[in-house]
Amino acid sequence: MIYDSWKIFPYRDSGFSVAGVRPLCYVIKLRHLRLFRLRPGETEICFFGVIAGIPFNRNLFQGTMVMAETDLGRLKVLVVDDQALMRRTIKSILRQAGIEDIKEAEDGVVALRMLQQDTYNLVISDWNMPRMRGNELLRSIREDDQLKDIPFLMVTGEMDEAVVGEAGETNVGAYILKPFGAKTLLEKVAQLINRKKSPSKIDSCLQLAMTHLEAGEYDQALDQVQAARAINRNSPRVLYVSGLIFEAKKEHKKAERVYLKALELSPKFVKAHERLSYIYELAGKTDKVVEHLMRASEINPRNIDRQLNLGEKLLEQGDPDKAKEIFKHTQRISDVTTAELTKRIGDIYLKKEMISEAIDAYEKTAELLPDDVYVLNRMGISYRKLGEWDNALKVYKKALELCPEDENIYYNVGRTYLEMGNKYRALDYFEQALKAYPDFAEAKAVIQKLTNGS
């Protein structure tokens, strides 16, 4: 397959002669040249002008980068992608626009470490990477007070509703869909940097409102929200920030009203659904909690914490079949390791006294993490609740072999012997728990009770 060079460049008046450029830009399909490592379903990327080594005319970017060249020269950009050629391609485009300080990371784990060690003005990251995907990197950045305001451009080969929902919930600055050209990339970069440098009046008001909110200055925060509403009375974002302030003031009815209004204007506003579920949980309205968690999960099914919370609320509502369906779906789509996720599901079942299901989850976890003392301890508690004391003692003793100084395991072995009616063995293990941790109040209390003959 042959690609025509004129499909690559945004403008025909790029300063190149037709005779000189066309022979260089006819390239064989890149997959056969092994220049790209394509994932299933991905298409070839159309940056052949860069790959062919053709020098871009600086005029090519006029109208695309609406920033002074000195501003571009001061930018420090981190490019994150597991494909080395894609990183080099993006770097080449950025350098042609005057951006020189560009660093690379091959996955989200490396990128996060680099971000924590140095200062960057922009992150351009692939969505689908091993170890830590782009969405996980973005979430980690937004949860870090030192990094949360960094502009973030997501590059993705998929753009279904779930991806859009997740990207929006984690405050992605912008995203571009593969395959893309130089003009598209540079327009997005300019958009993000200009927005950071010169935010809109509404953005400025909301940023100040959040600053006042975090400082506990609620009246000043509301003043900024009112200024934003004067610009756009029906902005869902403005209503959402109003709700956060009302929540902080414990005015939950007012918060509920503005969140519902935000959803009237923007029904797929995930964060509004999330906050409403929290308000309804405080009010003990489990049916409303489930309703809004379900809606949020339909928009963004990749939020694992919310999915597990939804499953737990469905158990409270008396719908274990639906909860199990949610848990299975979560395991299929999760970026979290199977063992960690199964452990958390086991904890939910144990909390809700669904002991057989808890044991099943912990046993599956133990197959993957045989030396996890926490899992062994929780499994022992589950066996005790079923009266299976021999099985409980078996896993407890394995836990003690792995961690012989764990006072909680000694204490739980003591509880097991006490439940079996063997007070003397129980007392021995309670004393060992107290030896391991001299301030163990529960162990002291039960020892005193046993030694007093009660």
Question: Overview of this structure, please?
Answer:
- It is globular and about 80 Å long.
- Strands 2-1-3-4-5 form a 5-stranded parallel beta sheet, sandwiched between helices.
- 35% of the residues are buried.
- The model is unreliable at 1-70 (pLDDT under 50).
- The protein has 24 helices and 5 strands.
- Among the domains are: 5-197, Response regulator (Rossmann fold), CATH 3.40.50.2300; 209-258, no CATH class.
- Helices cover 62% and strands 5% of the residues.
- It has 454 residues and is mainly α.
- Strand 3 (122-126), helix 7 (134-142) and strand 4 (152-156) form a beta-alpha-beta unit.
Describe the structure concisely.
The chain has 24 helices and 5 strands.
Please describe the structure with a list of short key phrases separated by commas or semicolons.
globular, 24 helices, mainly alpha, Rossmann fold, five-stranded parallel beta sheet, single chain, 5% strand, 454 residues
Radius of gyration: 28 Å
Structural class: mainly alpha
Order of helices and strands: HHHHEHEHEHEHEHHHHHHHHHHHHHHHH
In CATH terms, what is the architecture of the domain at 5-197?
Answer: 3-Layer(aba) Sandwich
Could you name the CATH homologous superfamily of the domain at 5-197? Response regulator
Would you spell out the secondary-structure blueprint of this structure?
Blueprint: H1 18-25, H2 30-33, H3 48-51, H4 69-74, E1 76-80, H5 84-96, E2 101-105, H6 108-117, E3 122-126, H7 134-142, E4 152-156, H8 161-169, E5 174-177, H9 182-197, H10 201-214, H11 218-231, H12 236-248, H13 252-265, H14 270-282, H15 286-299, H16 304-316, H17 320-333, H18 338-351, H19 355-368, H20 373-385, H21 389-402, H22 407-419, H23 423-436, H24 441-451
Parallel strand pairs: 1-2, 1-3, 3-4, 4-5
Helix pairs in contact: 6-7, 10-11, 10-12, 11-12, 12-13, 12-14, 13-14, 14-15, 15-16, 16-17, 18-19, 19-20, 20-21, 20-22, 21-22, 22-23, 23-24
